[in-house]
Design goal:
Order of helices and strands: EEEEEEEEEEEEEH
Helix content: 10-25%
CATH class of the largest domain: Mainly Beta
CATH topology of the largest domain: Immunoglobulin-like
Mean pLDDT: 81
Largest sheet: 4 strands, antiparallel
Shape: elongated
Distance between the termini: 109 Å
CATH superfamily of the largest domain: Immunoglobulins
Structural class: mainly beta
Radius of gyration: 30 Å
Strand content: 35-45%
Low-confidence stretches: none
Length: about 200
Amino acid sequence: MDRLDPKTRRIRHFSGANGLAHGEIRSAVADRSGALWFATTQGLSRLEPSIERSTARPRVLITELSVGGTRYPVSQLGESSIAKLELTPSRNQLQVEFVGLDHEAGDSLRYTYRLERADQTWCAPREQHSVNYAALAPGTYRFEVKAVTPEGAESRTPAEIDFTVLPPFWRRWWFELAAAALAGALGTKARNSSTKLAKPVTL
């Protein structure tokens, strides 16, 4: 059963987790006091409409992290921020799990997230609490995730992971610099050899 607030246009979803009787809703009526009754195939529920109190914004924490199929150490209490993570070219896959906290009992949180540099916008809120990114191109990234309540209240601060996918060694600055220096040295040696061969002989 969904409740729409005309002023905010927010929708709150009620299910068995909130006390609604399980089964398919067959009928709904309002009594003289204004209470709403819902008859389902498995029971009867009564709802007394009241002004919705402001909903606390949920916190969100990163609970598990895997890099290239190997678990990365994360606090058992969860973490709100992980920084300076480096992924090698052969392990450029990242899997993240997260969870929302500080929400009302029975509420089902959803999650919205984005990967800066790869995603243009935040994804639509969804129930899944994990995401997997495979075959990431070399570069610097930031993953951010927020929890969303049924009323649409989002985490004030997202949990985040700052990481870098390293390029192959032949594309790193030190290798390119060494290659340029070697090419310069070989070029100088070749020019010197040509100069010696071209020197005129006096009889």
